[in-house]
Amino acid sequence: MENKENKEISTPCYVFDYLQFKKNMDLFKKSLDKYFKGKNILSYSFKTNSLPYILSCVRESNNYAEVVSAEEYNLAIKVGFDEKKIVYNGPIKTKDSFLYAVERGSIVNIDSQREVQWLRDLDKNKKYKIGLRVNFDLEEKLPGQTMMGELGGRFGFCDDNGELMNVINSIRNIKNVDISVLHMHVSSKSKSIEVYNELVKRACEIARKYNLSLEYIDIGGGFFGGGDDGSQYEAYVSQIYETMQEQGMKDIGLIVEPGASLIATCVDYYLTVLDIKKTTKGYFAVTDGSRLHLDPFFKKNNYKYFVNKINDNFETEICIKQVVCGFTCMENDRILTLENSQKLNEGDVIKFELAGSYTMSYNNLFIRYLPRVYVYNGKKYIEIRGEWSINEIMQLNTWRK
User: Fold this and answer.
1) Which of 24, 51, 127, 284 can bridge 277 by disulfide, Cβ–Cβ 3.0-4.6 Å?
2) Neighbours of 52 (CB within 10 A)
3) Structure confidence at residue 310 (pLDDT)
4) Is the pTM of this model over 0.90?
């Protein structure tokens, strides 16, 4: 439906603010350069939002790609990343993509036993560098601050039970492979600076314990930040730097893998009211959008939003309760509840801010297909992904005629 607020865009849609995204990247990189001089890497997390236009903006800013599958690795190559500017993580790498990445100089952080075995298939006449993802019980150190809680994390090699030591010893038996990175990422609930301090301390402890000559500590992602003056980025980076100095690791560089802290503040989502229903429970506003587009995990309980009335004089009734709903046939596709607010009408447009994190990556093909995406470059709106139609759905399918 045409958006009455802005005739340049049609809803439902996302709008990507290129200038804000570039500003976020530049501010984060500025903090890294301030403390870690020429030895730092900002590697954007593809899984957070992998729209090719956005990835090309990362590449143009001379930053790295952080990928966790062969598909994402190939996407990075497709949009123009040099192999040496890709950080390859995750436990589901394919053998072909793993060997290709190591041979081409990507930063590859090993996360499974089979990858250790694959190292033996590399050219014996060449030297290679790899990283290791570390697993340890951060929850014990910081109760309540990790996503996995007492269940423990499933990624990396456990330092607490000797598995990491075994892997290090196995790799040392492969004479042409050196360990140059420790990957410390942990999914944090709190995103506190305290979390990153503990990750750095453990990385430094491991480096000393196993006599590793590290080039980088990869601290992962999960930061707050974006949409401000960069003060939150600097708070993290300055503390990480201070902790590394205290630990005597002055010559080791830092890799960060931000996703949400770069992209969340750069995307708005627009939808239009299609119909108003009145029941004994209140009013229901049916829209052309969906909670699936805004909250794919169905966890959010508040949004930053603005309602653009097509005609403020059209309806002055104040409603005690209005539920804004999506287009799907699911009862729980309820986006937000408006209380004691002016009655919505058909054609009203609602704009949701901070909609860039994981939303496009988790878009699905349930009932309706992928919505349009526009970029706003400070002057005009340009469509960078068309609305998917039946043509896109059928392109790799066969059917009986």
Assistant:
1) 284
2) 13
3) 80
4) yes
